[in-house]
Amino acid sequence: MLNTNITNFRKNIFSMLEQTIKYNEPVNISTKDGNAVIISEEDYNSLMETLYLYSIPEQREKIIEGLNTPIEECVTENEVEW
Asked: Which of 3, 5, 34, 58 has its CA 20 to 30 A from that of 73?
């Protein structure tokens, strides 16, 4: 995460936003009234999708179960029928 103050952000807004978009590098901007974080639209959409999936109890349980499954018990990509 890139950390900067509001003055520096104003001076370099284009390059910082470009870095955020191209490399998904969040920017933490500090001000006297508090901080703000800028993330790419791609990262924002991913966060919203994750929150949505976790809001469905059955889906959350399946995700947690999958995370706890040993890799040896998983099927390979070639074995998945699309």
From this structure: 58
